[in-house]
């Protein structure tokens, strides 16, 4: 290799040469005083800098002498035949459960997974039923089923985790199972909901190929605990399965699991979380703000995103799970509630940009009326807000909505903007319906966001209620061995336990819990 180097290329330069590779070749040749025939190169990292009117692409590159072999990325996962190995039981097949199962294959243990939902193909039909018939299946929906909440999602792979080495491993296993290599170089990697189901299916096939088991339509309904040790789990068909190690990766929407643990007096803790609304703008407005342009964005640029945060009266108000070129989806997990979230296809080519805008809720200070629910106080508050959205939306999956400016200025919207939300919107006075704790901070926050991004505060945007499932309202406490603080053999894992907030962090926690469970056998 000649060297690693950083390059900055303006959008105009790429346009002139017509292709990325060509302009990079010329720039490298110029920088190193070589002819373009003397070297090859590989992109290690790519990001966009759109802070100023001149937009740049920043690259990190590895340059090689012609004839020299380029470093090949090899994805080596040491999966072993575990068909006859000791089992580790995993409840839930979202990112945490999937990566726990894959890690078991490497560690030489047989993963046996119980998942309440259906496989990705069958799950699709239930999503159609939610969108078109407003029927929410309690075991199969946008949160439950193969791949968990991560399958029909945006597939953003951004994580704040500093353990970059582990993040890379998760990305490599995604590539190993069919994701594009781009995710290894993009500064803001993203897969897209159209590509995720196949990747998730490939992961399941790896687990089965090496002797693991994945049981769909298999909800866990009870745990048998003797002498502070989990000894078996009860399935919905009443079968009792003896267990020694259980990774509990049921996600933040498995309210029946939280309620079951609470009823059994297994220690849980209320956890602070965030709630609010989803805001939807025409993508062109966001593009024009972020790329300093008017009309359609340059075709070399992806749909623009944003990230906003402001402190309002002692609580953070911030954008969450921003989906450029995406759709708002109905993410409820039971009848009688309305919950919205966002997803986008790999090309991010839908005409809308949506994002959660949420307010931090401090469970120990902000919701005193819910104290009687003890560790489940945040969960009960969350439920109430979702029921409010259901009734104010018209008692179906139609969601309550308001034009952004009407919400902030406190008046009902006579009509709403077009939306990507398939079940439809109903005008509702969210400014007065939302608890003051959330509503007043959101209104102040949106005003500030309009100053930070000129054009963001507009009547052309809708706000849609409610964005309530940002993270778990409960922690299932665990010790330094990742075992529940009281129950031996039980490993609370992923977002449901309060140990992750997104696909990648849930995946990493899944791996860690599999390692911890294996270490104890
Ligand atoms: P989950 O994904 O919630 O998986 C839990 C699994 O357990 C589910 O499959 C469920 O069916 C199963 N289960 C529950 N109870 C039981 C039971 N009793 N018995 C058996 N099985 C059970 N994150 C990102 O990082 N990027 C994104 O772009 C992104 N977009 C999202 C878009 C949407 C629409 C949604 C809903 C979420 C999105 N997220 C995104 C969040 C992300 O999906 C979650 O953080 C992640 O899936 C959490 O992983 P998990 O495995 O801990 O839990």
What is the radius of gyration?
24 Å
- What would you say the CATH architecture of the largest domain is? 3-Layer(bba) Sandwich
Q: Give the CATH superfamily of the largest domain.
A: FAD/NAD(P)-binding domain
| Tally of strands | 22
Biggest sheet descriptor: 7 strands, mixed
Question: Total domains, how many?
Answer: 3
Helix content: 25-40%
Mean pLDDT figure: 95
Strand content: 15-25%
Q: Order the strands across the largest sheet as they lie in space.
A: 13-14-17-12-20-18-19
By DSSP (H or I, 4+ residues per run), the number of helices equals: 14
Structural class: alpha+beta
Bound ligands, each once? flavin-adenine dinucleotide
Can you tell me the overall shape?
A: globular
Low-confidence stretches: none
Name of the CATH class of the largest domain: Alpha Beta
CATH topology annotation of the largest domain: FAD/NAD(P)-binding domain
Organism: Maribacter cobaltidurans
Protein name: FAD-binding protein
Domain FAD-dependent protein C-terminal: 272-470
InterPro entries: FAD-binding_protein, FAD-depend_C, FAD/NAD-bd_sf
């Amino acid at each position: 290799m000649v060297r690693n180097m950083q390059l900055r290329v303006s959008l105009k330069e790429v346009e002139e040469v017509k292709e990325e590779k060509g302009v990079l070749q010329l720039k490298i040749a110029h920088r190193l005083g070589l002819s373009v025939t003397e070297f090859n190169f590989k992109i290690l990292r790519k990001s966009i800098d759109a802070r100023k009117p001149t937009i740049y692409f920043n690259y990190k590159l590895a340059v090689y002498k012609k004839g020299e072999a380029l470093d090949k990325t090899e994805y080596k996962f040491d999966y072993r035949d575990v068909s006859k190995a000791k089992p580790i039981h995993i409840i839930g097949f979202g990112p945490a459960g999937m990566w726990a199962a894959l890690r078991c294959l490497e560690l030489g243990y047989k993963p046996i997974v119980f998942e309440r939902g259906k496989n990705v193909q069958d799950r699709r039909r239930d999503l159609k039923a939610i969108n078109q018939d407003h029927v929410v299946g309690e075991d199969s929906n946008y949160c439950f089923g193969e791949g968990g909440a991560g399958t029909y999602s945006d597939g953003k792979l951004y994580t704040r985790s500093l353990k970059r080495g582990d993040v890379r491993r998760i990305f490599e296993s995604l590539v190993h199972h069919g994701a594009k290599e781009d995710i290894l170089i993009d500064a803001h990697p993203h897969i897209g909901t159209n590509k995720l189901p196949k990747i998730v299916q490939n992961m399941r096939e790896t687990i089965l190929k090496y002797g693991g088991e994945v049981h769909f339509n298999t909800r866990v309904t009870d745990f048998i605990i003797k002498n502070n040790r989990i000894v078996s789990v009860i399935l919905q068909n009443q079968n009792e399965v003896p267990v020694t190690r259980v990774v509990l990766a049921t996600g933040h929407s498995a309210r029946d699991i939280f309620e079951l643990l609470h009823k059994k007096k297994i220690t849980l803790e209320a956890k602070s979380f965030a709630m609010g609304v989803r805001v939807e703008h025409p993508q062109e407005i966001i593009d024009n703000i972020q790329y300093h342009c008017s009309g359609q964005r340059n075709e070399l640029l992806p749909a623009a995103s944003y990230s906003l945060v402001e402190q309002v009266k002692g609580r953070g108000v911030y954008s969450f799970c921003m989906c450029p070129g995406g759709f708002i989806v109905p993410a409820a997990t039971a009848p009688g509630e309305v919950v919205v979230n966002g997803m986008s296809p790999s090309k991010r080519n839908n005409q809308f940009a949506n994002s959660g805008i949420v307010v931090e809720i401090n469970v120990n200070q902000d919701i005193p009326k819910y104290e009687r629910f003890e560790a489940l106080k945040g969960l009960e508050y969350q439920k109430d807000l979702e029921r409010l959205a259901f009734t104010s939306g018209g008692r179906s999956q139609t969601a309550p909505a308001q034009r952004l400016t009407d919400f902030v200025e406190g008046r009902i919207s006579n009509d709403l903007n077009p939306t990507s939300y398939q079940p439809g919107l109903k005008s509702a006075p969210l400014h007065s319906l939302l608890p003051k704790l959330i509503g007043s901070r959101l209104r102040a926050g949106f005003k500030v966001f309009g100053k930070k991004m000129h054009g963001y505060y507009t009547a052309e945007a809708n706000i849609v209620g409610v964005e309530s499932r940002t993270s778990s309202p409960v922690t299932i406490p665990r010790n330094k061995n990742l075992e529940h603080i009281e129950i031996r053999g039980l490993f609370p894992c992923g977002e449901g336990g309060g140990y992750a907030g997104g696909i990648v962090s849930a995946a990493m926690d899944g791996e860690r819990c599999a390692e911890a469970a294996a270490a104890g056998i």
